[in-house]
Amino acid sequence: MALSIGAALGLAVLAGGCSSIRDHRGYLVDKTLVESVQAGIDNRLSVERTLGRPTFVSQFGNQDWYYVSRETKTPAFLRPRAYDQMVLRVRFDEQGNVVGVDRKGMEQVARIDPEGDTTPTLGRERGFLEDLFGNVGAVGGPGGAQVPTGPGPNGS
């Protein structure tokens, strides 16, 4: 009986170690506050008081405000993967009034899978031994530094 309880407890500990770790990164979204921002009614000050400072501000053109929120899962021994994302963009006119509010989600996430284990490069392919011993004999060989032979401090 004690052996089966110990085995069950051990199995529960092992199974618990394989669970995913959930993590939140970025802006904490309150849907009621996000939906309360309206074009033609709000301005920069009211948006800042409602939503707080943005995650970042656009650097070119109109200064749009972006609020970025991302939920990730990290399975055991693997890299984090995003399973939910929200990017809220608040657009302003020259006077600082809200012109529009855009919401984007996971459709904006691009999954990029590298092809193969190596990065293609221009030039010839060299093996491990060529990389290791490639410079042997190159010092002082043809096209390298010339040994002085005439009159002078080093050339008798």
TrEMBL record:
<dbReference type="InterPro" id="IPR037873">
    <property type="entry name" value="BamE-like"/>
</dbReference>
<dbReference type="GO" id="GO:0019867">
    <property type="term" value="C:outer membrane"/>
</dbReference>
<keyword id="KW-0472">Membrane</keyword>
<dbReference type="Pfam" id="PF04355">
    <property type="entry name" value="BamE"/>
</dbReference>
<protein>
    <submittedName>
        <fullName>Outer membrane protein assembly factor BamE (Lipoprotein component of BamABCDE complex)</fullName>
    </submittedName>
</protein>
<keyword id="KW-0732">Signal</keyword>
<dbReference type="InterPro" id="IPR007450">
    <property type="entry name" value="BamE_dom"/>
</dbReference>
<keyword id="KW-0449">Lipoprotein</keyword>
<feature type="domain" description="Outer membrane protein assembly factor BamE">
    <location>
        <begin position="26"/>
        <end position="99"/>
    </location>
</feature>
